[in-house]
Amino acid sequence: MTSHVAPLNRIRVGSAPDSWGVWFPDDPRQVPWRRFLDEVADAGYEWIELGPYGYLPSDPAVLAAETGRRGLKVSAGTVFTGLHHGPAVWDETWAQVSRIAALTEAMGARHLVVIPSFWRDDKTGKVLEDSVLTAQQWRDLTRQTERLGREVRERYGLEIVVHPHADTHIDGAENVARFLDATDPGLVSLCLDTGHYAYCGGDSVKLIETYGERIGYLHLKQVDPEVLAGVVAEGVPFGPAVARGVMCEPPGGVPALEPVLAAAQALGIELFAIVEQDMYPCPPEKPFPIAERTRRFLRSCGV
C-alpha cells in the first residue's frame, strides 16, 4: 500500500547558490557558477535565486541564456542592508539595491530578499555594534524599510521580503513581531527562513499562523539541535556555526518541514519555498547529492 501525499499546489520549490556553499561573489573555495547552474537543474529544481550579486553573470542577456537553456527561472534577488542606521545610509544602500533590483526585474522575478546587517562579523565574530537596537534605531529600521519597499515596487515592480537572520537585529520571535507590528503590511512582507528562525528559538508554524498575511516568501532550512545547543552555549557567531554544521540536511533537523509546508499551503496564496542549506565552505562535490536527496524528500512532502 502506498501512502498518498496531497500536493501542495500553491508552493513552488527552488534552490539557491547558498545550498552549493556560495556566500560571496568570488571565492576560490566556491563552485564555479556554471557548475552550480548545471547541478541545480540536474537535481530537479526549476527555480533559483541570484545569490550574492556578481556570482552569476550580471548581464541579463547572458544570464537569461544560461538559465534558459537549463530550464531554470529566477525567483528573487538578495540585498544586504543596514537601514537601522537611518537616512544617512540611504544613498549607499540604494546604489547597491538598484543594481540588484534591475537584474532581478530583468530576469522576470518578483521578489527581493532583504537581509539586515550583522551586529557581529560573520567570519571573525568581532562585535561590530550592540546586538540590541535603541528606540530610535527601531524607528529608523522600520521607516527606511518601508521606504525601500515603496521605492523598489515603484521603480522595479518588485516586492521586498525581509529575512530574519541569525546575528542580526531581526532574529527571533520577539524582534520579528516587533518589526512586523511597526511596518506597513502593504509595503513590507517577510521571507521566513525556517532554519534561521529555529536557530533563534522561533516556531515557524506559529509565525505563519499568527502573521500569515505578512508571509511573502519561504526559505526551507533545518538546524541540527545538538550542534545548535553547543553554538548557543558557547556564543559562537553564525559563520563558524555553519562551518560546524549547524544547518543540516532535511529531514534530519528541526523544524519538521511537513507542518511548515502545510501551514504555508493553508494561507491560500502562491508562495516560493527556496531550499537553502548553509554550508560555506564545503568541498565542491558535497552539495549535489544533498540537493538531489532534498528534492526527493520535498516531493515526498507534496511539493
TrEMBL record:
<dbReference type="InterPro" id="IPR036237">
    <property type="entry name" value="Xyl_isomerase-like_sf"/>
</dbReference>
<protein>
    <submittedName>
        <fullName>TIM barrel protein</fullName>
    </submittedName>
</protein>
<dbReference type="Pfam" id="PF01261">
    <property type="entry name" value="AP_endonuc_2"/>
</dbReference>
<dbReference type="InterPro" id="IPR050312">
    <property type="entry name" value="IolE/XylAMocC-like"/>
</dbReference>
<feature type="domain" description="Xylose isomerase-like TIM barrel">
    <location>
        <begin position="37"/>
        <end position="300"/>
    </location>
</feature>
<dbReference type="InterPro" id="IPR013022">
    <property type="entry name" value="Xyl_isomerase-like_TIM-brl"/>
</dbReference>
